[in-house]
Amino acid sequence: MHTFSGPILLATDLSARGDRALDRAALLARQFGTPLIALHVIEPHSRKLLTPQPSDDEREAQAQRRLARDLEGMDMDVKLVVKRGDPVKLLREAADEYGCALIVTGVARDETLGRILLGTTVEKLVREATQPVLVVKRRAPRAYRNAVVASDFSEGSRQALRVALKMLPVSGLTLFHAFDLPSNPKDELTARGFQRTAEEAATEFLEATPELHGSEKPKIHVAAGIPERVLTTYVEQTNCELLVSGTHGATGLARTAIGSVADSLIEKAPCDVLVVRHA
């Protein structure tokens, strides 16, 4: 297992649910011995607000106190940053300025509808950030023990695998590929042939990944069906802790720039989701 070479950037809205992302970011920073940058962005007041609001200076001071309180006593190198302006722009700039290797953020949930609300900031951040973005959904009692890496055998999914190798030992990784079957396969033998072809392609993909040369390989699992559906089902059945997916920006497997599949993955997967944007 390799390790992250740069700081971890925590994007926090200071909400109670955001504590899950904070705990995971702190755990990862301890695990890899990297600094933690905790950033909160104050957005401009909406002109539609009719009630008196604190000044920007007051809001910044409140945010600084809250961040300091949340991170008090942490035995690591922590930097607290509060900025004003556009969240995505400032998060991207901060990630580049501090040389961050990973951005960690949380999600909000609509308790009435029972679904995750990605929100404009998270959607744009996952789409635009050059660093991998970890969307935290679960509590963080310990380091990740297992992860599923979604793959279409592209270079983008190889980049996702490389990031996964920095976070977990190979023994905890499963390479997952979803393949299409003819609408009416002629017989079971034909279906098994498609599966065998997919498994062989997965094996070749791993063999062609330099970081794995001469070492143990991740487990392979292939399944017929629509990627987001079979992947979510597999993650649920195996009690997976982390789902990792690459992206080609706006297209590719799981269009993991909050496209149709990635939208489903982040919303429906019962675990944290790590999105690695294809450079």
Major sheet description: 10 strands, mixed
CATH class categorisation of the largest domain? Alpha Beta
Helical fraction equals: 25-40%
Strand order of the largest sheet: 3-2-1-4-7-12-11-8-9-10
Rounded mean pLDDT score = 81
CATH superfamily of the largest domain: HUPs
CATH architecture of the largest domain: 3-Layer(aba) Sandwich
SSE succession: EHEHEHEEEHEEHEHEHEHE
Total DSSP helices: 8
Q: Give the low-pLDDT segments.
A: 110-118, 249-259
CATH overall fold name of the largest domain: Rossmann fold
Number of strands: 12
Organism: Bordetella flabilis
Pfam family, one: Usp
Domain UspA: 7-137, 144-277
Protein name: Universal stress protein
Keywords, please?
alpha/beta; Rossmann fold; 2 domains; ten-stranded mixed sheet; two-stranded antiparallel sheet; 12 strands
Account of the protein in words:
Belongs to the universal stress protein A family. Pfam families: Usp. The protein folds into 2 domains: 8-136, Rossmann fold (3-Layer(aba) Sandwich); 147-276, HUPs (Rossmann fold, 3-Layer(aba) Sandwich). It is built from 8 helices and 12 strands. It has helices at 19-32, 56-70, 87-97, 119-128, 155-167, 188-207, 227-237, 260-268; strands at residues 8-11, 36-42, 78-84, 102-106, 108-110, 115-117, 133-136, 147-150, 173-179, 219-224, 242-247, 272-277. The protein is elongated.
